[in-house]
Specification:
- By secondary structure, the protein is an alpha/beta fold.
- The chain is globular and about 45 Å long.
- 45% of the residues lie in helices and 18% in strands.
- Helix 2 (33-45) runs parallel beside helix 5 (116-125).
- Strands 1, 2, 3, 4, 5, 6 and 7 form a seven-stranded mixed beta sheet that branches.
Amino acid sequence: MPHTLGIVTGLQFEADIARALPGSNVACYGPGPAAAGAAASTLVAQGAAQLMSFGIAGGLDPDLLCGDLVVSPATLAAQLAVPERMVNTVEAAVLTPRAKSALYAKTGAHAVDMETSAVRAIAQRHNLPFLILRVICDEADDTIPHVALAGVDAEGRTKPLRVARGLAVRPQDLAALITLGNRRKRAVMALKAAVKEVSRSMSAL
């Protein structure tokens, strides 16, 4: 099957999951809009006929729980039997419930990430279909500890030693880090399940 679906992720573990989608070509240049835009441009140059933003996201809508899907457009949402939902993209991670609440009030978006808008812009520039397949990881009431951010490098790889060093300086982050770790495990399971369901739907076409 030709690689016609170009998938952009910000984190390497997301890319590993995304590669299970049939006909996909996955690019992960690291977190953030600039890296995502560059990755999307590369995929278009390699022949992608449509682009997808894929991975985990932060919850802004307080009704969404860890593991809930954030999907667009409606055709993809229908495959997964979920409502179509909006994602807002930011330059830096939104860390606190207060900041998430303010962003939700301002934008009305259900979730937040650091890549989707950049991938959408490249898709629009090249007149390509654009899809979102994201899963809520941290919920609207969760705090993301600073040590979690320090544990991800510029290429989107997790660095456990960095986290350990950060905890030595900020042991007060341990409880929030444990919560986030548990959330991520659930989000990964939900992402994998969504990939299987989309793959089955694609195989039936």
